[in-house]
Amino acid sequence: MPRGLFITFEGLDGSGKTTQIRKLETWLEARGHEVVVTRQPGGTEIGDRTRAILLDTRSKGLAPMAEMALMFADRAQCIAEVIGPALKAGKIVLCDRFTDSSEAYQGGGRELGSERILAMHKLICGDVQPDLTVLLLPGFEPSLKRARRRNKREEKQTGKNEGRFEAEQDAFFRRVWEKYREIAAREPERVALIEGDLGIDEVFEQVVEIVSERLVVAGS
Q1: Are strands 5-10 and 132-137 parallel, antiparallel or unpaired?
Q2: Which value, in Å, is the radius of gyration of the alpha carbons in the chain?
Q3: Domain extents for the chain?
Q4: Are 198 and 138 in contact (CB under 8 A)?
Q5: Section 23-51 average pLDDT
Q6: SS3 readout for the chain
Q7: Is 7:130 a contact under the CB 8 Å cutoff?
């Protein structure tokens, strides 16, 4: 059986990744594709417990290197438990964040640098690379405001506080933003960049066009 297709979505929180993944899942399934949706951090029982540590505002003393190590521990579990088996079964995997997030947030935001992140990816993730990455970069300030509002709303509704990153200063997110742009420039064949403050349907039109082209190339 041919290997499935691995598609990741990247961007700042508040960029609309989750909405676009849900819409793409529906679109793909309507066309007969088997789809597995996952996220990082999280996506497995162990990963969800790791996510709680990484995103909870109470984890204030978490060192940058420890943060990076936890991200990759979560990723290794998701590859072993979800991503790897799904790809082997020929399914399409849609993943909300992957190693590009670590390069952007820990490499850029925490200023650990890309070299460490990419070395960790090679060691922990082996040959698992996305076939396509959709990078959503709407306006910097609007997306950050949306993320902070969403976290406050979800905390009221669920009692979960996942705003540790959103509590960072704007300079942190500016470094994340610039690192994402650097990744897109470095890997234009893999990373499809969608920029600007577009409506949900406008973004999805571009997502469908990008994914359709990749499906043709993959023969899916």
Answers
A1: parallel
A2: 17
A3: 5-218
A4: yes
A5: 97
A6: CCCCEEEEEECCCCCCHHHHHHHHHHHHHHCCCCEEEEECCCCCHHHHHHHHHHHCCCCCCCCHHHHHHHHHHHHHHHHHHHHHHHHHCCCEEEEECCHHHHHHHHHHHCCCCHHHHHHHHHHHHCCCCCCEEEEEECCHHHHHHHHHHHHHHHHHHHCCCCCCCCCCCHHHHHHHHHHHHHHHHHCCCCEEEEECCCCHHHHHHHHHHHHHHHHHHHCC
A7: yes
Tell me the one-letter amino acid at 96.
D
Residue 86: φ, ψ to 5°: -65, -45
pLDDT value of position 114: 98
User: Residue range 62-79: average pLDDT?
Assistant: 97
Tell me which residue of 8, 24, 6, 28 sits closest to 136, measured CA to CA: 8
Q: Which two tokens stand for residue 96?
A: 């909300």
Name residue, tokens 């893999």: 190
pLDDT at 150: 67
Rounded CA separation 51/67 (Å): 11
pTM of full prediction above 0.70: yes
Identify the CATH number of the domain defined by range 5-218.
3.40.50.300
User: How far is residue 196's CA from residue 97's CA, in Å, rounded to a whole number?
Assistant: 20
